[in-house]
Amino acid sequence: MLSNYIPVIVMLVVAAVVAIGMVAGSALLGPKHPTKYKDTPYECGITPVGSARERFPIKFYLVAMLFIIFDIETIFLYPWAVIYAKQNHADRIFLLGEMAVFVAILFVGYFYVLGKGALDWDDRELPNEGMPPAIWKSRPPIRFGNENSGPVQVGRKQELPDTGNAAADQNTAVHTGEPVGAR
Fold it and tell me: How far is CA 40 from the centre of its chain?
């Protein structure tokens, strides 16, 4: 009985060895040229600004949990459909009735959540329920830090601040089509 699991165990061990080997190999053999720019966090090409500890509104988490709940409920439709296709006529009618009850309960939950306003993103319409006005005050818009960077000049080398290391500055210069030093 245990011999049936040997291929699975071998596959897991090989996958773990390959993964650990690749990470260790790149850490030991990879080039190491740290610069100020390479050590900064990279956020999809946007200059990181502000604190990473910014608080998210509770609505974000509530909608995420509701999405997970309704998504998992929808996943239950697939095994039901597989079983439904293999049944005789009488069992199909019974299974169809069971699924109708399931979907009805799902819709009751959806309309309850919709009626409570859990899917509304506009916080100004929610009752304040005796909380201080500062809690319900609108937040400022999210800033990415590059709003005032100006137009991009295509075809010219963009200068980066000097780090004190000429070789590192040479490697990290941003080019838009011209060789280094050309203007």
Answer: 20
Distance CA 99, CA 152 (A): 57
72 Cβ partners below 8 Å, 6+ apart?
none
Closest CA to 136 of 148, 145, 144, 127: 127
Report if pTM > 0.85: no
Tell me the CA distances in angstroms from 133 to 82, 118, 125, 139, 169, one per residue in order. Answer: 53, 20, 14, 12, 50
Q: Report d(CA 9, CA 15) in Å as an integer.
A: 10
Domains in the chain (CATH in brackets) are 14-140 (1.20.58)
More confident of the two residues 14 and 135: 14
Contact 180, 173 (CB under 8 A): yes
Region label for 157, one of left (φ > 0), alpha (ψ between -120 and 50) or beta (otherwise): beta
Q: Residue type for 165, please? A: N
Angle at 35 between CA 32 and CA 39, to 5 degrees: 90
Chain segment 49-87, per-residue pLDDT in tens: 666 677 777 777 888 888 888 888 888 888 999 999 899
* Both tokens assigned to 178: 């011209």
